[in-house]
Amino acid sequence: MPRGLLIFGGTGDARLLCERLDEQGVAYRLSVATPAGRQQAAGLQGEIFEGRMDANEMADFCRHHEIGLLADLSHPYAAVLSENILQVQRELGIPLVRYNRPSHIDAVDNPLVHKVDAIDSACELAMQLGERILLTTGSKQLADYIARLPGKTVLARVLPTQDVLAQCESYGLTIDQIFALKGPFSAEFNESFYRYCNADVVITKESGAQGGFSEKVAPCLALGIPCIVVVRPQTQVSGDVTELNNLSGVEQYLVSRFSVC
Q: Count of CB atoms within 10 A of residue 105's CB?
């Protein structure tokens, strides 16, 4: 049997998995990057560690805590984190299970939906499509978007945390441009929100059902608003890695390898 289990992820997927592991009596440690991730993990029975780690710090952590199995339930766009986890897997030879949140991007086929593979492409297109550009992409790369949208009115929907709001203000966004809300939201809410913002363009990510992707896109189609979707980064996987796109499958994989601790 593996020794310790280390799960990466401050997502709703990670919380749901941990709740199921709690019910099964499986012990684990959960690594989250931000205070928001810690809040998401409130009430879980596992030991929570907050703060970003590079690959070397992850490897040291695994050695110190005798980790025998890794689980990557990070956000689909946390490419750097996933690459670091893969590096640790290769370096230490620890088995890794990765949850690939199901995508719905292939089901979207409409002239109003523009699929791009990078922020540069998203902003270049948005510059041509309108003046008021609504970002539903989070705060992590907000500065990159603002820098690439000169002369446009950037509207940012972000998490309502002190750090994120301070970050928005440091980028020069005013109170008329910051919308601090925690999703996911219904399509009806988003349609009203887009109307309220008077958005000309919406930029979003391919976040899947957990991130409310369809509920973000459908109102754009209803309102005739161009929607730019930054598709997910692709990570090259090798070594002792199991990839699953079903959360129940990840649960079964982990439960089958751990006894009650």
A: 17
Residue 238 confidence (pLDDT): 67
Whether the pLDDT of residue 260 is over 70: the answer is no
For the chain, the domains span: 4-102+233-258, 105-230
Tally of helices (H runs) and strands (E runs) in the chain? 10, 12
Nearest to 60 by CA among 101, 88, 102, 20: 88
User: Is the fold of 4-102+233-258 the same as that of 105-230?
Assistant: yes
Helix 12-24 vs helix 247-255: angle between axes, to the nearest 10 degrees?
Answer: 40
The most confident of 80-84, 195-199, 228-232, by mean pLDDT = 195-199
Could you read off the pLDDT of 109-166 as tens digits, one per residue?
Answer: 899 999 999 999 999 999 999 999 999 998 889 999 999 999 999 999 999 989 899 9
C-alpha distance from residue 19 to each of 16, 42, 43, 253 (Å): 5, 11, 9, 15
Q: Taking the CB of residue 128, how many other CB atoms lie within 10 A of it? A: 8
Is this structure's pTM higher than 0.85? no
Query: With helix as H, strand as E and coil as C, how does 169-228 read?
Result: HHCCCCCCCEEECCCCCCHHHHHHHHHHHCCCEEEEECCCCCCCHHHHHHHHHHHCCCEE
Topology annotation, domain 4-102+233-258: Rossmann fold (3.40.50)
Average pLDDT over residues 84-108: 86
CA distance 71 to 85: 9
Superfamily of domain 105-230: Nitrogenase molybdenum iron protein domain (3.40.50.1980)
